[in-house]
Design a protein that fits this description.
The structure holds two protein chains of two kinds. Chain A has nine helices and seven strands. In chain A, strands 3-2-1-4-5-6-7 form a seven-stranded parallel beta sheet. Helix content of chain A is 37%, strand content 21%. By secondary structure, chain A is an alpha/beta fold. By secondary structure, chain B is α/β, with parallel strands linked by helices. Chain B has a six-stranded parallel beta sheet, sandwiched between helices. In chain B, helix 1 crosses helix 6. The chains are: A alpha/beta, B alpha/beta. At the A-B interface, helix 1, helix 3 and helix 9 of A face helix 8 of B.
């Protein structure tokens, strides 16, 4: 069975995350054919300029990483299929999904960006799990249509606070006790 | 009591407030608590200066994770009143050594800490509330059975089952 993981934040900057991912993927090997798509966010010119100019005060305030961190380093492994692609060039239709595949999409922002291109009926057809990492998901949930999309997939949240936010919009989610 | 904290030295981790709180508790309640700080970041200089002035504050800087894990069992409690914490691996590392935790409510795994009595949660990051949490952590004892149940939630098999909806 194919297990497709789509994530925007493959944290090669932190070896701990890579270790946990490798640990999980080893455990999955027996049952699944693992494929990881690292979809990197494409920042607008204005945002790039802003983050470059104000990198120092931003990092002093909350440790914000420079904008290049997500695109400059590449993490690859021979043990499973790993594809790095810009988010704007990535489409779920291109990955040849079938109904017996499992698809896990990390980050609500990325998930909604990708799922918005599919019709609700086809979203429903697949085994899709969205992991919400955003601490304040209301920004995305308040946009019309997004709640409908999430009602057609399985939702996991990183902590109970996120879970409560989702509940306010009628989305049930299970808390995942994982670092990634 | 010997407290410790681990994290990037950035404002949202509230390390400076934690240092001040430990010093206030020592002063007002005539305690001899110490706080050992592991980590590095933009606030390094302030933390370094405070550690030079006050004996109760020990600054160790960045430390390799494997080395750190060998050190933490000497401590009595772990303090990290960090804001905007999605998970907080350092909390789990403390729990693995059965070390009680002081943290902010509704951040990271605070629900688990409350449900299984694994430490004290503070409703906000004011120095007053952090002081109160530090006082409550005095001689705090974790129930080993509850701890085992809580740690089971982080078990790889359990996590994978949740991920894969099995």
């Amino acid at each position: 069975m194919r297990l497709i993981i789509i994530t925007e934040n493959w944290q090669y900057s932190d070896k701990r995350v890579t270790r946990v991912v490798n640990d999980y993927s080893n455990a999955l090997f027996e049952k699944y054919e693992l494929e990881v798509f690292h979809v990197t966010k494409v920042y607008s010119f204005k945002m790039k300029l802003f983050r470059r100019l104000f990198h120092l005060p931003l990092s002093l305030r909350n440790g914000t990483l420079p904008v290049d961190i997500y695109t400059s380093t590449c993490f690859t492994t021979d043990e499973f299929s790993f594809t790095k692609i810009k988010r704007n060039n990535f489409n779920l239709k291109n990955i040849k999904m079938s109904v017996d595949n499992k698809i896990i999409i990390h980050w609500l922002d990325t998930a909604l960006f990708l799922l918005a291109s599919l019709a609700l009926e086809s979203i429903n057809k697949y085994d899709i799990t969205v992991v919400v990492h955003e601490l304040h998901p209301s920004k995305w949930l308040s946009i019309e249509g997004n709640v409908k999309i999430l009602n057609n997939v399985r939702v996991l949240s990183r902590n109970t606070k996120i879970s409560r936010y989702l509940q306010c919009y009628g989305i049930n989610s299970k808390v995942i006790r994982s670092f990634i | 009591m010997n407290f410790y904290t681990v994290g990037a030295l950035i404002p949202r981790k509230n390390i400076i407030k934690t240092i001040i709180s430990v010093l206030i508790v020592n002063l007002l309640y005539r305690k001899k608590h110490t706080l050992t700080i592991y980590g590095d970041g933009p606030l390094r200089l302030i933390v370094l200066v405070m550690s030079k002035i006050f004996d109760a504050i020990i600054f160790r800087g960045y430390i390799n994770k494997e080395v750190l894990l060998n050190h933490i069992n000497h401590f009595d409690a772990f303090l990290l009143f960090s804001k905007r914490e999605a998970f907080g691996l350092v909390y789990i590392e403390a729990l693995k050594e059965a070390i009680p935790i002081g943290c902010l409510k509704d951040e990271g795994i605070s629900d688990l800490i409350e449900d299984f009595n694994l430490g004290v949660t503070s409703t906000d990051s004011s120095i007053k509330k952090i002081c109160s949490s530090i006082l409550k952590l005095n001689n705090y004892c974790i129930n080993k059975v509850k701890l085992r149940k809580a740690l089971n939630e982080f078990n790889k098999e359990v996590v994978l089952k949740t991920y894969l909806n099995q």
